[in-house]
Design brief:
The protein is of the alpha/beta class. It contains 10 helices and 10 strands. A hairpin with a 5-residue loop joins β5 and β6. The protein is globular. This is PRORP domain-containing protein.
Length: 271
C-alpha cells in the first residue's frame, strides 16, 4: 500500500529521561542489580568511566550459546563469540563484551583475539549480565547499539512511568541486533534494528497496519515476539484489486454499495 509506518525514533530529551531512570541508584539497588555484589558493580562503573563510550555492546554468553545443543563446547562457544567480534572489528567499531568469569577457561587462541579486539568485562557466574549490558549501552550514548537474543522484557516493566516504558521499547527496537546465523567459516548474519515501530498502528487516513508472524520466515532461534516481517493493511480506500472485483460482481448483477467504504486487506512485506 506504500504507506509509511511510524518511525522508532527517540529524541535526545526522551533518551536522557530513560537513561536517568534506568541508571537511578534507587532502582539499581532495589531491583536490577540485586544479584550483584556492590564491589562488582563499583568495579564495573570504574571500568566504564575508563573505557566508554562504545559503538557496540555484545552479550557474550548469549552469542556463544547461539548454537545447537549437540555442538556446544568451550571451543564452539569461543569460535561463535570471536566470529561476531571479528564482524564488528572489521568495521572498526569500538566493542564491549559482557560475559561471565568462567569464559576465561575457553580456548586461549580465540580468547586472545577477542581480548585484542574488544574491551571485556566478566561478571561472577551468579550475576545477571543483562542489566550490565543495558547499563553500558545507555551509558555510552544514543548512538550505541547492542547484540542479544534477549527481549529484555523484565527491565522494561521496572520502569514505572508508561512514557518511559514506551521510550524503552522504541530505543530497544532501534538499537538491538539479533544473531540470525554464524556459519562454520565464521560468517555472521544479523537481524539489524528496525527503523519503524513493531506494533499495531493507525495512520491519519484511518488505515490500520497490523504485524503478524509466519513461522517459516523466522531465523533459527530468534524470538518471535520481536520479529515482524509481515504486515496486514486494513484500508478504507479501495484498491485496484477491489475495483476489479466490484466490476465482476456487476456483471453477475449483484448489488454493490457505493456509499459504504470497502475494507481492503493487503499484505505488506518488509514495510
Amino acid at each position: 500500500c506504500h504507506a509509511k509506518l511510524d518511525q522508532a525514533l527517540v529524541s535526545p530529551e526522551d533518551y536522557n529521561q530513560l537513561k536517568e531512570a534506568f541508571l537511578n541508584p534507587v532502582l539499581i539497588g532495589k531491583d536490577i542489580f540485586q544479584k550483584t555484589k556492590p564491589e562488582e558493580f563499583n568495579e564495573f562503573l570504574t571500568f566504564l568511566e575508563k573505557t566508554a563510550p562504545y559503538d557496540i555492546v555484545l552479550d557474550g554468553l548469549n552469542i556463544a550459546l547461539k548454537v545447537p545443543k549437540s555442538r556446544r563446547s568451550p571451543s564452539t562457544f569461543a569460535f561463535q563469540l570471536k566470529s561476531v567480534v571479528k564482524h564488528f572489528a572489521c568495521q572498526k567499531a569500538k566493542i564491549l563484551i559482557l560475559g561471565r568469569k568462567h569464559m576465561k577457561r575457553w580456548p586461549s587462541e580465540d580468547m586472545s583475539y577477542i581480548y585484542n579486539n574488544a574491551h571485556v568485562f566478566l561478571t561472577e557466574d551468579i550475576s545477571q549480565d543483562d542489566p550490565f549490558l543495558l547499563y553500558a549501552t545507555l551509558y555510552s550514548g544514543l548512538g550505541t547499539c547492542f547484540v542479544s537474543q534477549d527481549l529484555m522484557r523484565g527491565h522494561k516493566f521496572l520502569l514505572a512511568d508508561p512514557k518511559l516504558q514506551a521510550t524503552f521499547i522504541k530505543w530497544q527496537a532501534k538499537h538491538q541486533f539479533c544473531i540470525s546465523y554464524i556459519d562454520m567459516y565464521g560468517n555472521v548474519g544479523l537481524k539489524e534494528p528496525v527503523s519503524f515501530m513493531q506494533s499495531i498502528q493507525c495512520n491519519a487516513r484511518g488505515d490500520w497496519h497490523i504485524p503478524y508472524m509466519v513461522k517459516e520466515d523466522l531465523p533459527h532461534n530468534v524470538r518471535v515476539d520481536n520479529y515482524h516481517r509481515h504486515w496486514l493493511c486494513l484500508s478504507s480506500q479501495p484498491s485496484q484489486q477491489a475495483s476489479d472485483s466490484s466490476g465482476s460482481y456487476n456483471k453477475r448483477k449483484q448489488p454493490v454499495s457505493h456509499n459504504r467504504p470497502k475494507v481492503v486487506l493487503k499484505n505488506l512485506f518488509d514495510s
